[in-house]
């Protein structure tokens, strides 16, 4: 089934999608181009909030609120505390110069990533319509996660454990050196 | 009725309810603290000084909002608004009474019965930290910055404990919807005791303690320790913008009290008497009674306990509350596993 542009505009959900998606994209772009590190982090918040809103639009309430809780509520706040207790400049920060030699590879990488994800999504869903307005029950999600998907779930937790140990190892290194 | 109109009515009702509550709450706190300290407290505006809060509110409304030259304007303005918004939004998922039937349609007395209500509460209370971070950073001044670093570190630490303390409740009820959790607590246990979640006593205690820290109340009010950091994150705020922070803080206290009542003390469950047309009032009364009892407990603690030292606060959160709640989760999970599936060797 093909969807014409006129049909696309007639659907209210598409308008809602655009209202969420455009600020999300803009915030994502400003995150990497902003000249002030605190502002960059705040644009990242807007972009994550947009992502959460899109999840909620798809009926994935649990995932949406988890994004808010974990990313916006914890990860970014830790970023902000880290920035604020080290340096918290108001105004333009000269260190964030966005040098050209970094810019180009980053752009190329971004385009490539977009191509891969875009291809995967189009390949998986093609033109199938998604019925978005029935929220997924959290209990169903939990049952699936702990029966069919329990091994991937545990494997992912090992990745987090490895990251945690890596973080501790990195942070502790200097300390031990000083003591010896 | 269109769902949009219904949603709007619910939102307006919650907003009005909270505003009236805050006016009472501030007065109750001042009166109760002055009673505990052998003072008279406010007694000039209206009978027993009950209009004092209203007068204070009017005053701050007409005062000039000073904006220091060094501020980051957008965030400085946004911070008090975010504080108030998150506080108001949290109450949207708190059921204040049993469902009522009007013209054959049943209406739940809750702003919105979310499937993931508890997650929503936690997510929004973590958003509340932003208001404090923004206020501290955007003020472009030393004391607010120090105050907001303190506050945000304190709030995210105790948020972890609070989130963990709610896991046994979710396990026990088998749902993250707050309405379902309240419905699970109806009836009695062994015929005499109300079947409240207060049987999860460690969770209740940890939730309440982290509630004190989340709302920056004494004994965890280092955020605004006047001797050390002046007013904390809201040092540079004045007039109406300050009033918004003040409002948000008191709504947060009421939210935590209401959530405690709903999650651990059975919410609107309680005996119902009298003719049918009055029966729907009782659940609301029980909910308000339980909530205000906890509010008074908050005030009582404020009048009784000294402020904690910052390192004690942090080590208490991370080294005591979080390990205890983790151990308690494991215990509850094992108990529920045995209840549902029997002993592992049987």
Task: Walk me through the structure.
- The complex is a heterodimer of chains A (180) and B (346).
- Chain A is 77% helix and 0% strand.
- Chain A is globular, with a radius of gyration of 21 Å.
- In chain A, helix 3 runs antiparallel to helix 4 (61-86).
- Chain A has one domain: Up-down Bundle (Four Helix Bundle (Hemerythrin (Met), subunit A)).
- Chain A is mainly alpha-helical and 180 residues long.
- Chain B is built from twelve helices and four strands.
- Chain B starts with a helix and ends in a 5-residue tail after the last helix.
- Chain B has one domain (69-341).
- In chain B, strands 1-2 form a two-stranded antiparallel sheet. Chain B has a two-stranded antiparallel ribbon with strand order 3-4.
- The mean pLDDT of chain B is 83.
- With 346 residues, chain B is mostly helical.
- In chain B, helix 1 packs across helix 9 (239-264), helix 1 (3-36) crosses helix 11 (281-304) and helix 3 (73-91) packs parallel to helix 9.
- Chain B is globular and about 70 Å long.
- Classes of the chains: A mainly alpha (180), B mainly alpha (346).
Topology of this protein?
The complex is a heterodimer of chains A (180) and B (346).
Chain A: H1 5-10, H2 12-33, H3 37-57, H4 61-86, H5 100-125, H6 138-145, H7 150-179
Helix pairs in contact in A: 2-3, 3-4
Chain B: H1 3-36, H2 52-62, H3 73-91, E1 97-102, E2 105-109, H4 117-138, H5 142-173, H6 178-184, E3 188-189, E4 193-194, H7 201-214, H8 226-229, H9 239-264, H10 276-279, H11 281-304, H12 310-341
Antiparallel strand pairs in B: 1-2, 3-4
Helix pairs in contact in B: 1-9, 1-11, 2-9, 3-4, 3-9, 4-5, 5-7, 5-12, 7-9, 7-12, 9-11
């Amino acid at each position: 089934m093909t969807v014409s542009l006129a049909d696309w505009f007639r659907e209210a959900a598409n308008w809602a999608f655009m209202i969420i998606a455009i600020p999300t994209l803009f915030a994502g772009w400003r995150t990497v181009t902003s000249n002030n590190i605190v502002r960059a982090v705040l644009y990242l918040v807007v972009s994550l909030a947009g992502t959460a809103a899109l999840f909620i639009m798809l009926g994935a309430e649990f995932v949406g609120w988890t994004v808010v809780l974990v990313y916006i509520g914890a990860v970014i706040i830790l970023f902000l505390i880290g920035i604020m207790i080290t340096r918290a400049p108001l105004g333009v920060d000269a260190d964030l110069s966005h040098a050209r030699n970094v810019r180009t590879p980053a752009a190329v990488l971004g385009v490539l990533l977009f191509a891969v994800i875009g291809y995967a999504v189009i390949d998986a869903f093609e033109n199938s319509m998604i019925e978005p307005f029935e929220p997924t029950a959290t209990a169903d999600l939990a049952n699936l996660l702990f029966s069919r998907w329990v091994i991937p779930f545990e494997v992912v937790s090992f990745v987090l454990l490895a990251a945690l140990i890596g973080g501790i190892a990195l942070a502790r290194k200097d300390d031990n050196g000083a003591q010896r | 009725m269109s769902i949009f109109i219904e949603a709007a009515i619910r939102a307006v009702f919650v907003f009005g309810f909270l505003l009236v509550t805050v006016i009472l709450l501030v007065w109750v706190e001042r009166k109760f603290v002055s009673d505990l300290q052998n003072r008279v407290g406010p007694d000039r505006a209206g009978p027993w000084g009950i209009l004092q809060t209203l007068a204070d509110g009017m005053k701050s409304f007409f005062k000039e909002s000073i904006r220091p030259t060094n501020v980051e304007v957008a965030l400085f303005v946004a911070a008090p608004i975010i504080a108030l918004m998150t506080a108001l939004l949290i109450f949207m998922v708190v059921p204040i009474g049993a469902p009522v039937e009007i013209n054959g349609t049943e209406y739940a007395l809750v702003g919105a019965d979310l499937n993931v209500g508890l997650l929503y509460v936690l997510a929004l209370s973590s958003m509340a930290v932003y208001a404090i971070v923004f206020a501290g950073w955007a003020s472009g001044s030393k004391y607010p910055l120090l105050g907001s670093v303190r506050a945000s570190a304190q709030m995210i630490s105790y948020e972890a404990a609070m989130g963990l303390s709610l896991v046994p409740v979710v396990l026990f009820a088998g749902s993250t919807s707050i309405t379902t959790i309240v419905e699970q607590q109806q009836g009695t246990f062994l015929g005499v005791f109300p079947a409240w979640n207060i049987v999860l006593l460690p969770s209740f205690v940890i939730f309440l303690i982290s509630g004190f820290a989340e709302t920056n109340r004494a004994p965890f009010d280092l955020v605004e320790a006047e001797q050390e950091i002046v007013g904390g994150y809201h040092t540079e705020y004045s007039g109406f913008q300050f009033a918004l922070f003040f409002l948000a803080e008191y709504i947060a206290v009421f939210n935590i009290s209401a959530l405690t009542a709903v999650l651990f003390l059975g919410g609107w469950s309680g005996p119902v008497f009298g003719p049918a047309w009055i029966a729907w009032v009782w659940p609301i009364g029980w909910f308000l009674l339980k909530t205000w009892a906890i509010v008074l407990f908050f005030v009582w603690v404020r009048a009784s306990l000294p402020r904690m030292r910052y390192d004690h606060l942090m080590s208490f959160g991370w080294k005591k509350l979080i390990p205890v709640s983790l151990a308690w989760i494991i215990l509850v999970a094992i108990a529920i596993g045995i209840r549902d599936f029997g002993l592992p060797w049987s």
